[in-house]
Amino acid sequence: MPNVKSLEDLKRIREEALKKQQLKETSGKTEVIVGMGTVGIAAGARETLKAILDMIEKDNLSDIIVRQTGNIGLDSFEPIVQVVRPSETKVTYGKVNPEMASRIMKEHVIGGEIVSEYQIEG
Amino acid sequence: MRELALHILDIAENSISANADRIRISVEEDLEDDILKIRIEDNGKGMDAATLAKITDPFVTSRKSRKVGLGIPFFKAAAEACEGSFSIQSALGEGTTVEATFKHSHIDRMPLGDISSTLITLLIGTPEVHWIFDYTFNQNRFTFDDEPIKNILEGVPLSEPAVMTFIRETIEEGIQNVRLESSIKQI
Do A65 and B159 touch (CB under 8 A)? Predict the structure, then answer.
């Protein structure tokens, strides 16, 4: 079977990523966490996470770590997204659909401003 | 759940909760035998016989074991509603294997759905796990193993934009190629 993607491509991607990393070594990484328990998945958490990943890809955003985790324990607020910016406290958002996720990415993850209307007690 | 791919995501989450560090997901579609088979195999902490006996029953699950709550009974019910079957095998300290088969042409069978989104969610969201994915369509197989990728990347996260594009395209093209090859053979 023809394999269009080769690991050689990946090596080149790595070199470029490392160059970028060296340029901004001091800025820490922002962590974005999406709850992916049964309730979260049923409520659309995969699509929420996909919107976050699409934005990272499209806008070429480095230094963002995306994690998924099991049940966060706030079932009625799923899908849940948590944002932790370097040396700031964790912010929890509830009932996050893909559009809301894009806004959280723009305003909070990139812009540094909490989207307070989506925020819940985490 | 509206897609089998969402069930796969849910069952794989159980494997992560069970501290697995190697998880293999296999999807097999065979139109001739009219079967769709899904298998999720992990090396997590496993379950003893008593827990295993209870796991497919939605009514005995205690709040404490919530992490493996309703997902498994849902998945089992989905398979059995399509003249399929469901099995779960587990041993303490060895891991767990969940397998569901569906009659491919059954009117109530959910679509496989967005399997590449499910895989990308798992790969990028849980990079500490070694993920292997097998997709077989009418006996043509595509295997995606993330270990060679991680070995090359060393120090660069999977959430790096160009890396994500690479992974997404590799999986999407792999699945597409396997389906295409099978249809070419038929002609």
Answer: yes
Two tokens at B105? 């042409």
DSSP string, B90-130: EETTTEEEEEEEEETT-TTPPP---HHHHHHHHHHH-TTSE
Rounded distance between C-alpha atoms, residue A99 and residue A96, angstroms:
8
Contacts 24+ apart (CB under 8 A), B55-60: B55/B88, B56/B86, B56/B88
- Cβ separation A53–B159 shorter than 8 A: yes
Q: What is the residue extent of each domain of chain A?
A: 27-120
Class of domain A27-120: alpha beta
ipTM of this predicted structure: 0.89
B108-130 confidence digits (pLDDT tens): 999 999 999 999 999 999 999 99
Chain A closest-CA separation from residue B60 CA (Å)? 17
CA B19-B20-B21 angle, to 5 degrees, is: 115
Give yes or no for a contact between A34 and A67, defined as CB atoms under 8 angstroms apart: yes
Domains of chain B: 4-186 (3.30.565)
A10 vs B contacts (CB less than 8 Å): 149, 152-153, 163, 166
- CA–CA gap between residue B55 and residue B14 (Å, rounded): 12
Report the residue from A38, A56, A68 with minimal CB separation from B125.
Answer: A68
- B164 contacts A57? CB cut-off 8 A: yes
Sheet holding A30-35, edge to edge: A64-69, A30-35, A81-84, A91-93, A119-120
Among the partner residues A1, A37, A64, nearest to B181 by beta-carbon distance = A1
Across the interface, do A36 and B181 touch by the CB < 8 Å criterion? no
If you measure CA to CA, which chain B residue comes closest to A16?
B162
Say how far apart CA B70 and CA B48 lie, in whole Å.
Answer: 19
- Per-residue pLDDT tens digits for B124-183: 999 999 999 999 999 999 999 999 999 999 878 899 999 999 999 999 999 999 999 887
